[in-house]
Amino acid sequence: MAGCCGCGVEAARLHARQRRVLRIVLAVNAATFLLMLGAALHGRSSALLSGALDNLGDALTYALSLAVVGAPARAKARVAMFKAALILAAALAVAAAIAWRLFVDPAMPLFGAMGWAGAANLAANLACLWLLRPWRAGDVNLASAYECARNDIADGLAVLAASAAVWLTGRPWPGLVVAGLLLAVFLASAWRVWRAAYRSLRAA
Questions:
Q1: Transmembrane segments in this chain: where (predicted)?
Q2: For residue 121, which of 15, 33, 42, 159 sits 20 to 30 Å off, Cα-Cα?
Q3: Residue 9 pLDDT grade (very low, low, confident, very high; cuts 50, 70, 90)
Q4: How does pLDDT run across 108-152, given as a tens digit for each residue?
């Protein structure tokens, strides 16, 4: 009986630590979403818009992860499948933004806005990745949250690269190229999260 009580206390402590970390990364991603969205609209940047949508999806993902901490494995797997759908939705939104810039409004993005917003977003996402790293190989709930944080690092680096390329070339196409690369990253990530969730659901 004492051993069972000890296990219960340890599990409660683990869940409390997970909830604390998820609350922090949720707040960070909600703030960076607003930052990136404002910068995207001001800077007319598809790359920044893709980053903003990614942060919004991550904030929703972390909220879902927070809701199922301590839940049965089947519930976590189902939520992870929904997270994969959110990542896919972000990918489709990026594709729509690319099409808009290509065929409707091919405006020149402001590389200054891309640079400072991308740098701030990268710094915030590095902090989130560090916080989630201890659970990268844990259950499907926290592992999928880590996957989202890792996507954000690729997004931040890509936006900075696009900003430098726009400045060097004086043309808008580098931002569209970066947005296309991020589209591929999001699609691959959605597949990985869905596959892990499907395996977890079958095991449960």
A1: 21-43, 55-73, 85-104, 110-132, 153-170, 176-194
A2: 15
A3: low
A4: 556 666 677 878 888 988 998 898 888 777 667 777 778 778 877
- Domain assignment present for residue 105? The answer is yes
Residue 4: inside a domain? no
- Tally the domains of the chain: 1
In terms of C-beta density within 10 A (0-12 exposed, 13-18 middle, 19 or more buried), how is residue 105 classed? exposed
Cα–Cα dist 162/184, whole Å: 16
Domain, as residue range, for 63 = 21-203
For residue 197, what is the domain's CATH number? 1.20.1510
Domain contains 155:
yes
pLDDT in tens, 10-45: 767 877 888 888 899 889 988 988 888 888 777 777
